[in-house]
Write a structure and sequence with these properties.
It is a single chain. The chain has 395 residues and is mostly beta strands. The chain has one domain: Carbohydrate-selective porin OprB (Porin). Helices cover 10% and strands 45% of the residues. It is built from five helices and 16 strands. A 16-stranded antiparallel β-barrel has the order 1-2-3-4-5-6-7-8-9-10-11-12-13-14-15-16.
Length: 395
């Protein structure tokens, strides 16, 4: 217990050295981003106002609450994937129902919440379809059939001048860890290779603390301390007993505070304690990311990582590609990843391309394709191809 208190104290000092924005520590997959219309780049002019026109009273009520400081959405996402692997079932589908929002309780403090139900419609959830077919690949990130989860329930406090932000409570570290503009599995790439770096053994949402300091308009540092054994389907305070922690520290450069995940170059180091019950080995590593928007349309990116333990998906990974943001907040991306895994010989190469049609602020449709060369768990097949279709509707 004394060790735990000491680590929390160190973590608190780390957290007072982090970056702050109007939304606190928030990336493309966070509640703050999901509450904002579009991607924050342009004023969208959509093709439709569905579903607002179907339930105008509901949306008017939400708008009134938003003016009083309470913003929330209910949305539903569905993902179907179909592949040609000669192993496994060859197809998967699932959905995520989410209720999320934030309450601006004081001028500098807010409460963020998110409850999800992640479910599958067949024998295999999309997240595991690649593994089912023999590819060491998470092909449907977040669509895992885990059931009802408490993903977020945390307090954010910001400095008056915006130089630091502190968050504590039920955190999802992937909301702010190793960010770039296309990191969200709800609106960007679907494969984990192009989301949070697959060499990082990021924990499930659980009890944690995060924050930091903005040294200037360009230089920031972000840190976190979280429960390495977290289970969001049964949230608890067990970290105070076992003390198994995930720690991260990120130092980065951005063009301005409000473009923290649009124009960003950073280095992240992390460490995860071994599980006290022996189920997980100690793990640690480093990740680098560089992404920069050109004319608020094109975002080339380069990302790499290395880890020394056995719990992360890969121990070496390099990704590169480009994302595109068009009119009506349409978005597209193409990425190429090379990866190696500890204890498995060979190199696996993954290509993903997607186009997100934003029909309205509340309706998005995203077809995608993934091509996995030299699937590490299926040496008998040279290439596995997966087609996907993701939809999102927001109420």
């Amino acid at each position: 217990m004394k060790k735990m208190i000491s680590l929390v104290s160190i973590g608190s000092l780390w957290c007072l050295t982090s970056f702050a924005s109007a939304q606190g520590l928030s990336g493309p997959s966070s509640v703050g981003a999901d509450l904002a219309p579009g991607d924050g780049l342009t004023d969208p002019q959509f093709r439709s106002d569905f579903p607002r026109r179907v339930a105008p009273g509901w949306f008017a009520w939400k708008d009134e609450l938003a003016e009083k400081g309470l913003k929330f959405n209910f949305d539903y996402l569905a993902l179907g994937q179909w592949g040609n692997a000669d192993l496994g079932v060859g197809k998967a589908s699932g959905g995520i129902a989410r209720l999320y929002g934030s309450w601006q309780a004081t001028e500098r403090g807010s409460l963020t919440f998110k409850i999800e139900d992640r479910h599958k419609f067949g024998s295999v959830a999309p997240q595991f379809l690649g593994l089912d077919g023999g590819a060491l690949s998470i092909t449907g990130t977040a669509f895992n059939g885990s059931g009802t989860m408490l993903t977020n329930l945390f307090w954010t406090h910001r400095a008056e001048g915006g130089n630091w932000t502190l968050q504590f409570g039920q955190l999802d570290v992937t909301d702010f860890l190793d960010l770039y503009g296309a990191v969200s599995p709800y609106s960007g790439f679907q494969n984990l290779a192009f989301n949070t770096n697959p060499t990082i053994n990021a924990p499930n949402p659980g009890l944690g603390i995060a924050g930091g300091f903005r040294f200037s308009d360009n230089v920031y540092v972000v840190a976190s301390l979280a429960d390495a054994n977290a289970d969001p389907t049964e949230p608890d305070l067990d970290v105070f007993d076992h003390g198994n922690l995930f720690k991260s520290l990120e130092v980065g450069y951005t063009s301005s505070p409000d473009r923290i995940y649009f124009d960003n170059i950073h280095l992240t180091i992390w460490h995860a304690d071994a599980a006290s019950d022996g189920s997980r080995a100690e793990d640690y590593g480093a990740a680098f990311s560089a992404a920069w928007f050109v004319d608020n349309k094109w975002m080339p990116f380069f990302r790499a990582g290395i880890s020394e333990g056995t719990a992360a998906l890969y121990d070496k990974s390099v990704s590169a590609g480009v994302a595109y943001y068009g009119r009506n907040t349409d978005a597209a991306g193409v990425g190429l990843n090379w990866a190696q895994a500890r204890g498995i010989s060979g190199d696996q190469v993954t290509l993903e391309a997607f186009y997100r049609f934003s029909i309205s602020p509340g309706l998005q449709i995203t077809p995608s394709v993934q091509v996995i060369s030299n699937p590490l768990l299926n040496p008998g097949q040279d290439v596995i191809t997966l087609f996907g279709l993701r939809t999102r509707i927001v109420f």
